[in-house]
Amino acid sequence: MRWRIILIAAGICSAATSAFAHHAFAAEFDASNPVILKGTVSKAEWVNPHSWVYLDVKGEDGKITTWAIECGAPNALLRRGWNKNDLPVGTPIVVDGFRAKNGSATANAKDITFADGRKLFVGSSGTGAPYEDKK
Amino acid sequence: MTSTIKDIMQSTIDTNAEGVWHAVAIVATPTGIEDRAPRDNDEWRAVRHHAVTLLEATNLIIMPGRIVARPGEKSDNPNIELEPGQIQSLIDLDRRAWTTFAGLLHDATVEALTAIDAQSPAALLEAGEKIDMACEACHQHYWYPAQRGHERQ
Questions:
Q1: In A59-114, where do the E strands start and end?
Q2: Which fold has domain B5-150?
Q3: Dihedral of CA B23/B25/B28/B32: which sign?
Q4: pTM attached to this predicted model
Q5: A70-80 confidence digits (pLDDT tens)
Q6: Quick check: B14 and A21 CB within 8 A?
Q7: pLDDT at residue A132, as a whole number
Q8: A4-126 is classed in which CATH architecture?
Q9: A16, exposed or middle or buried, with CB in 10 Å at 0-12, 13-18, 19+?
Q10: pLDDT for A125
Q11: What confidence score (pLDDT) does residue B1 get?
Q12: Could you point out which of A29, A112, B15, B57 has its C-alpha 20 to 30 Å from the C-alpha of A21?
């Protein structure tokens, strides 16, 4: 959503600043533009109304890009089996989600898969995301 | 001049909800896992100010005669979100429903205030989710109802 601006600097992501915390999925993310991101966690913030995971992803040119990944609310994640210690910095994960419409390194996550194959749903609820009608 | 519902949503509800939400979090940084919460009475008091303002904003938006937006204002995402005039029509069609949605936010914010007064980060995190759910329920009804087709079954 263009009301929300993600600031990414020096490999350390600041929290999202926004004029509005809420948005329809389709206002900010592109359901026709799925993305798979493989990287390591550089920061994770479990906070209402959306948790954010910051992921360092190495490109083909070796350059590291830090992606900001929007996830569901903290207690929703905990109810789905997450533990607050699940995403320490440095954890390798794969994110399955949808890219932001504004072309920034921002995505809305559907699932996160760990190196051991464990996969957990992390999507937001009630925003009209495409994965919501499949759950 | 009288503020519109959009004005209050932007300047009062969203900003103060953020103040309540961001008061508690679990943050993973290079130094470890941190449970973020107000650290002393002054910080709890600051969060309480956000909650009280948010609570009273739920009364402001249901005041009779307050319009959704100024004449000429348009939707920022017209194919996804309704135009202000359409939102106004939905509200005018059923004022009781509008009041009920505002009441959901009111009640969730009361829970947040209770958590703040008890200085309970866990309860505030839980109340914060209820505030979010109240917001989303209202937004899906009035702001982006077309997205409801994707609601979880």
A1: 64-70, 92-100, 106-114
A2: Four Helix Bundle (Hemerythrin (Met), subunit A) (1.20.120)
A3: positive
A4: 0.88
A5: 999 999 999 99
A6: yes
A7: 66
A8: Beta Barrel (2.40)
A9: middle
A10: 67
A11: 84
A12: A112
Higher pLDDT, A127 or A100: A100
The residues of chain B scoring below 50 in pLDDT are 150-153
Pairs of residues, one from chain A and one from chain B, whose beta carbons lie less than 8 Å apart: 125
Q: What is the 3-state secondary structure (H, E, C) of B15-78?
A: HHHHHHHCCCEEEEECCEEEEECCCCHHHHHHHHHHHHHHHHHHHHCCCCCCCCCCCCCCCCCC
Q: What is the pLDDT of residue A89?
A: 97
Query: Is the CB of B3 inside 8 Å of chain A's CB atoms?
Result: no
- Of A15, A27, A48, which is closest to B81 when you measure between CB atoms? A27
Distance (Å) from the C-alpha of residue A82 to the closest C-alpha of chain B? Answer: 12
Q: How close A79 comes to chain B (CA, Å)? A: 12
Interchain proximity B21–A48, CB inside 8 Å:
yes
- Joined together, the tokens standing for residue B91 give 């509200």
Partners of B22 on chain A (C-beta within 8 Å) are 15, 47
Which of A1-15, A26-40, B42-56, B131-145 comes out lowest in average pLDDT?
Answer: A1-15
Domain ranges of chain B: 5-150
Give the list of residues 6+ apart from residue A81 with CB closer than 8 angstroms, or none: A120
CB-CB under 8 Å, B29 with A26:
no
Residue A23: the pLDDT is 72
A134 min Cα distance to partner chain B (Å)? 7
B74 burial type by CB count under 10 A (0-12 exposed, 13-18 middle, 19+ buried):
exposed
Q: Which strand (E) or helix (H) includes residue A5?
A: strand A4-5
Contacts of B14 in chain A (CB under 8 A): 18-22
Q: Which two tokens stand for residue B64?
A: 């009779």
